[in-house]
Amino acid sequence: MGPTPYQYLPLWAKVAIERLDADAQLRSEAMLDELIASYARSYGDSVDEHTRESARHICRRRFVGSYTEPALLEPVPPGTLRLVRLAREGALSPGDRVATQRLGECEVTRLHSPHAIEVRDPSTGRHYLISGLDFGPDARLVNAAPRPAKA
Q1: CB neighbours of 38 closer than 8 A, spacing ≥ 6?
Q2: pTM of this prediction?
Q3: pLDDT band at residue 43 under the 50/70/90 scheme
Q4: Where are the alpha helices (DSSP H) in 90-131?
Q5: Where in the sequence of the chain do the CATH 2.30.30 domains occur?
Q6: 96 vs 74, 75, 106, 119, 144, CA distance in Å?
């Protein structure tokens, strides 16, 4: 079943859409949801998911270019390393977490070179070597091991 046409929407949903039409600064999915919920409450009604999606569909078509939707979480493309958690900003080190499409989220165990790292899959405990990375021309390998204290 597709979206409900505008003329068959409840009055409170139409009022929310027209409110966005009157003020371009309000044109966002979050504001539409907020207006629909508050107008439905004032009419003693509740918002069903089909009506909400129908109103969103109408706004996407009516306000092309000015209606903003929340950003979608895109999957990690193959061959891309996504940084999940760094202990120190700007430096990848053992213990940090990264993600790839094939392995999912992993823990960095060792830095082999500026273009290769070893990671451990926490679910299986297996280690993988990820090579061919390009962190840019300024990437360098630094021994971050703590220096022994002088006596």
Answers
A1: none
A2: 0.48
A3: very high
A4: none
A5: 82-131
A6: 21, 20, 8, 9, 13
CATH class of the structural domain 82-131: mainly beta
Distances (CA, A) of 104 to 16, 32, 101, 107, 111: 41, 34, 6, 10, 19
pLDDT in tens, 87-143: 887 788 899 999 887 888 899 999 888 888 899 988 888 888 888 777 777 778 877
pLDDT surpassing 90 at residue 68: no
Ramachandran assignment for 128, one of left (phi > 0), alpha (psi -120 to 50 degrees), beta (any other): beta
